[in-house]
Amino acid sequence: MSYQVLARKYRPNSFDEVIGQDHVVQVIKNSIEQERVHQAFLFSGTRGVGKTTIARLLAKCLNCMSSDSPTSQPCNKCESSISIQEGKSIDFLEIDAASRTGVEHMRELLSSVHTSPSVSRFKIFLIDEVHMLSKGSFNALLKTLEEPPSHVIFLMATTDPEKVPKTVISRCLQLNLKTVSRDELQEHFKKICEKEGIKSDDESLSLVAKSAEGSVRDGLTLLDQAIAHGNGKLVANDVKKLLGTIDDSLIHELLDSITDGRKEDAFKTLNDIEKLNPDYEALLKDLISNIHEVSLHQVLEDSSKEPIINIASKMDEQYCQLIYEIGLNSFQKIHTHPSPREAVEMCLLRMLAFQPVQNMNSGETKTQKKKANKAQIKTVKKEKPPINKEVAQESHGINSSSWPALFNDMQLSSFAKNYFGNLSFARLNDQKIFLCGSKDQLDIPEKIISEFEEKIKDKFGNIEIGLEEGISSSSPNKINEENKIKDIEKTKKELSSDSDIKDFLDEFDGEIEIVTKIKN
Length: 520
Ligand SMILES: [Zn+2]
Fold this sequence. Notes:
Rossmann fold, 25 helices
C-alpha cells in the first residue's frame, strides 16, 4: 500500500476533528441548526490553519443526504458526502483564484449559477485565495452576490482579507481562523503518533509544534519528515537536527554568560551551538523571546523556569530592555549581514559591550589597555615621517575620541542627530571628515545630509563630509547610551549606600528599582 502523507490522512472528516478553531465551528454549527445559513462565507487566516478544510466540511453539511435539510453532522456515507470528500461532486466546484484570476474565467463560472444543482441540495462554489481575483472578476462576483439564486452558496477563503473589496466582504459571513496554539498542536501530534504507532516524547512533539508556527498542515508535514528521519520514531536530538533548532538550555547558558559579562563563555556556547548546524535566524528569535521572558518575570514574576528566574534576579532591568532592543535590531537586519553567524556574533558583542557590571569592574583595565594601545600607536607613528593628514586632523581637534563630544555640541535637528549619531568617526583627510557606518546606516535622506554639512561648516569652517561603509563601533549615540547606563548604575550604587535612603528602604522593606534623571 502506498504511504499517505499525514496532512492528508488526518484531514478532518467532521467538525469534531478540527483543531483549534472551536469559535468558527460553533458559529457554523449554530447557523445550520437554526436554519439560518448565509449564502456567502469568507474564511480568513494564515496558511495551513484549516480554511479550505472547514469550507469542505461545511459543503458536506449543506449537501449531506442523510437528512431532509442541512445537518451539522454529515454522515460521510451518502454519495454527496463522499463525492465532496473525494473532490468529485458535480455540485461542489473548487476554484483556485490564484491560477484563474481573469474575468473571463469568473464569467464562465458564474454562467452556471442560474442552473439548478444536478443531484444535490445546493450548488456550492469554493473560491480559494479569493483576494487574487482581478478587479473585473470581483465586480462580476459582486453582481451575483447581490442577488444570489437560493440554491447557490459561495465559500471563499483567503490569507489576505485586506485585499478583498469591502463591497464583497460586506455580503459575506466572515469567519476569522486563528493560528493554532502550540499546546493544541502538540496534543494533536501526540494523538496522531499514538494512532500511527510511533514512539514519541514530549520534547520532540513540542519542538515540532513550535516549528509549525500555528499551522496544522505545516506541522504535519514536519512530523512526517521527523518520523522518516528517526526511522519510525521521534527522538528529540534527531528532531533538533532536522529542524535546526537548539535546546533552550543552550540559550539560557548564552543569556547567563551575557548577564555576567562572561565573554569567553558566551562564545564557547555559541561554538557548541554551531555544532548543531543551527538556523541562526531562529536562534536569534529564540534568544529574543527568552530575553522577553526574563523581562516579563522581572515585572510579573510569572515564570516557573529555574534558569529564567535566576537570570531575571541578577540582570539589571534597564540592561534587559537594552539587550532586547539590540537583539531585535540584529534580527531585523540579519539578511543584510554577509553571514547569519556573523549577525549573531555582532549581536552578542553588542550586548556584552553594554554590560553594566562588566564595564564597571573592568573600567580601569580597559582605560589602561586603551592607553597602552595609544602609546604603542604613538611610538609607531613617531618612526614615520609626519604626514599632512595627521597635521590637518590635529589642527581641527577632530579625532575619533573627541568626535562624540564635538557631535553632541552641534545644534542639530533630531533627525540629523539620529542619522549621523549612529556613524563613527573614521578619519580626517584633506579637509574632509569621513564617517562610517553600515550600508543601512548610510542611507540618509539628501535633506538631512545638507543640514549636517551646513552645521559642520558653521562649526569648523571649510570642511566637507565623506560617508563610507564600515563598522560603526564608537558612534556618539552608542557612547551616549553607554554613558547613560553607567550613570544610572553609578547613581543606583550611590543611592543604595546613602544611609537615609537605606533606612527608608529598610523601613518599608523596599528596593531601588528604577532611577530616572529629572531635568531642572
Ligand atoms: Zn451524507
